[in-house]
Each structure stands twice: as C-alpha cells, then as structure tokens.
Amino acid sequence: MAAISSSMKNNEVLPGVHRPTMRVDLFKAAIKGNNKVLIRHLGLPPEAPTEIQVTIETSDPVSQQVVAEYQDAQYEIQSATRFGDTLLHLLITNRHNVLVLKVFAKDMSLLKAHNNKLDTPLHCAAMVGNYEVIGELIRLAPSVVSDVLKETNENGDTALHVAASNNHEGVVRELMKLNTEAAHKENKQGFSPLYIATVEGYTYVVETMLKLDGTLACTQFSDGTFPVHVAARMGYRDLVKHFLEEYPDDAMWLDCCGKNLFHVAAEQDNEELSTKVFTILH
C-alpha cells in the first residue's frame, strides 16, 4: 500500500475552529470501545502501534484511491460532539487505551484538541487518573505530550493541575518525569499544582512532586507563603513532618508577613506541631 504524506498527518484543527459533527455510530463506538466500527470507518491499524512512523509522500498513481480513503477517514477522525469532545477525548475518558494509541498514531494533532471547556484529551486522562495511557503516549511521542502539557483549559489549569486536584499520584508522576517545569505553572487563580495538592493534603502527590523536583520545596507561592507554611496552616502534620525531615531549612523561610514556620504553627494552636518545629529551629 502506498504511504500517506506526513503533511496530511499534521492536519491540525486549532482551538475555536469548527469541527465536523461526530456521527452517532462513531460516538457510541468510542464510548463502548467498539474496535471493529472504528477500524472500519477510520482505517485504524488492527494492533496498537509500538512506535510512531513518519511516512513520505508518493506520486504513485495507484495511491490516489488510498489518499481519497485517507481523506474520508481524516474527516471523521477530526469530528467532535456538541461539547467539543473528539474521539480521543472520549476514548481516553473511558479508558479504551489500545484504541487511544491507534487514533493517536493516525492523527497526533488530536491530542492538542480543545473541547468547549478547553480541556485537551490529556486533561481528560488526568481527570480520570489514566496514567497508563499517558505513559504510553509519552513513550510514543514525548515531545508532542510535552507540548500539550503546556495547554490550559478555561480555568487556566494544565493537565498537571487537574491531576493534582484529583489526587492522581500516578498521573502526576508520569507528567513530571516528562517535564518538571509544569509543576511551577500557576492557573488563573494563581495556584500551582503543588499548592493545590498541599492545600488538599494529598501527601503522596506532594511527596512525588518533591521527589522529582526538590526545588519546589523552597518555591514561594503567589500568596507569599511557602509549601511548608501552607501545610502547617491546614493542620497537615504528616506533610509538615515530611517537609521538615527532607528539607529542614524550610523551617527558616519567612512568608510575606515575616513569619516562619514556628509562627505559623503557633497560630494553629497545635502543641504537637509547634513542639516539632521548635525542636528543629533550636
């Protein structure tokens, strides 16, 4: 079979651009993970890809029918629901991961597609905790996933914000192994993924983030506090203990009001926490 031009694979539909309306049978197939229907209409490979191959153009006359079939399939693969969800949004949300990889190999630009809430499929994976498919997508095309990780939804959240908000440690781990800089990005409220996880008391998420980027422990948040201050104000003793054991210098950091961790702990009327901090400070 003649190869398809790589330029056709980059037929990207930008955010805000009208997409074809998704057919009902394709929508149902994406929800249920109907492999046969999607293979028939989209020309997907029978097996999940092990690598992304870049093909070259051909002038072979025999390929014209192949190109026409590809264009028909490409039209369908670019379709979306009335909520703006593409096939990749639906497949990832419903954890049909083998089909996700097939569709991604067919058109990598779909990973950058935004729905009506400006969520990309990567946001959807983070929302449901689908770390397995994120790991596979990173393995197949790390640069593509890294680019999509910079994309934000209507709240200014990246996929890492979403993962941190939903206590999905596995997703946080996969995304931060790819790009630790994402952990420093703030959303429209001025919250970073670490700030969100710390406020919520998601100990494993915080520990994973700090393990992959220790500089986060001494990063000042937009409200003038440091992570250990936030943990103390929220009364999370386990988190404070982790900060002090792994990053004892954190106890000396001053917030925007000139308060260190001991001051913050004392304000919480928590004798155990205050004693722990006092011991380290002295």
UniProtKB/TrEMBL annotation:
Annotated Pfam families: Ank, Ank_2
Could you tell me the keywords of this UniProt record? Answer: ANK repeat
Q: Does the keyword Manganese apply?
A: no
Q: Is Transport among the key words of this record? A: no
- Classification via SUPFAM superfamilies: Ankyrin repeat
Domain of life of the source:
Eukaryota
PROSITE patterns given in the database record: ANK_REP_REGION, ANK_REPEAT
ANK repeat ranges are: 155-187
The record's listing under PANTHER family reads: ANKYRIN REPEAT FAMILY PROTEIN, NO MECHANORECEPTOR POTENTIAL C, ISOFORM D-RELATED
Name it.
Ankyrin repeat protein-like
